[in-house]
Amino acid sequence: MNALRSGLFVLWMVVTVIPYAVAVLLLSIFVRGDRLYWFTVVWLRLAIWGARVICGVHARVQGRDNLPDGPAILCPKHQSTWETFAFPTLMPRPLCYVFKRELLMIPFFGWAMGRLDMIHIDRSKRTEAWNKVAEQGRRFMAEGHWVIMFPEGTRTPRGGQGTYKSGAARLAVATDVPLVPIAVTSGRCWPRKRFTLRPGLVDISIGPPIPVDGRDPDALMREVEAWIEAEMRRLDPQAYTSGAPPAP
Question: Which domain CATH number covers 140?
């Protein structure tokens, strides 16, 4: 049954993303910036609606009052595609994702994403990538956006823990902007390397902003890591009881 529902969900996304992406590409000739961003978010709402109605994937958000009024760099746990779709629908400000440029090659979805105010980088050119993140991150935050960077860099399996990289903390120090740690249990419903969704509840817990105060980036990221991983074990204790990730 989950496979059938997931197939219908994939069909739903394909049927909706193609005309919507074409509309974004055409609209971007005349409209850019926040207006184009919020227009694009409508499709993400359709995708999250499809996951909920077709596959039974629901969400619960805690800690909204921790979101700052000013600039911020969001640092979420990354377990599945779900949160990349969901965060723009949940946050009150435009989000500027930092992502590998290969995603721009995805037909329709990637083409439309390339028209938004995002930071796409070449991971093979580390110095050039960092300079681009620092320059564009500063500019987009000055325009009222929040930068969002997954500190583990890639999706991790439910119950797993990747290496927390210091890029977001380096940007925070360079711009004097706080880091906001976020725990997400999306692996319960959308396993990392599968497109078979399971019904269930995704918990999103937003932590208190961590101020920079001239601190060392590595120390800042260790604090982000400690908060996220402790919160993950509180939200999804079953995934961590055996000492090994549960089977996807």
Answer: 3.40.1130.10
Q: Is residue 62 part of a domain?
A: yes
Q: Are strands 73-76 and 179-184 parallel, antiparallel or unpaired?
A: parallel
Residue 244 within any structural domain of the chain: no
Identify the CA nearest to 148 among candidates 129, 126, 131, 133: 133
pLDDT along the chain (248 residues), means of 10: 90 95 95 94 96 97 96 96 96 93 88 90 79 90 94 92 94 95 96 83 97 91 96 95 52
Instruction: Judge whether 147 and 137 are in contact, CB under 8 Å.
Output: yes
**Residue 180 included in any domain:** yes
Report how many domains make up the chain. Answer: 1
- Would the pTM of this model clear 0.85, i.e. be above it? yes
